[in-house]
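anyone seen this seq b4? input:
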Amino acid sequence: MDGENHHGDHPPGLRERKKAETREALCEAATRLALNHGIENVRVPDIAAEAGVSPRTYNNYFSSVPEAICAVAADRATALGDELRKRSPQEPLADAIRGAMIANDPGGEVEEAERKEFVRLIMHTPALRGEFFKAVVARENSLAEAIAERIGSPPGDLFPRLLASTYCGANRVVIHRWLNDDNADYRALLREAFDLIAPMAAARDKATRHAA
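predicted toks r here
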């Protein structure tokens, strides 16, 4: 009905926005300090001071320094499924997943050198690798659930998880190549990798149309 308010459609309130901003500021502060001084030299009071809040406020958001550093990646991981849900139902599955993953990628939000430094920090720090692995699992789960919804998978269907794992795995392969090749174009590699996987998604699209 016109004029009716739907709670689910409301934008975040001021309090929620402030909390999100504080969370992001703490994550950025933790990452900046770890990159500049080494994670072993970063303490909670340092992060809180860098972000302009109290240590008590920090403890309301995070239980460890690695958790704070990986927070934005974790948030982005769980949002991947929602990116796919935003795509048009008429869009081919391969195009929809590709579009969702590119939209979910930090891409131009950070400088390439800064991004490489951050990824290397994670790869070379056992505590960060463990925390980041949670985001990797969450990302695949989020994408698999959205794929299953999009194609109407029956319970127990392996395809959504296999496809999600393939796309996320390709993304990781691209990152490793990009890290070790100064001439590599990350976005171009990502597009190439997704093009190689596209037939797998297209085959399911074709099967679904024939079944209908």
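The domain at 12-68 is CATH 1.10.10.60 (Arc Repressor Mutant, subunit A). Residues 1-9 have pLDDT under 50 and may be disordered. kinda curious what u guys think
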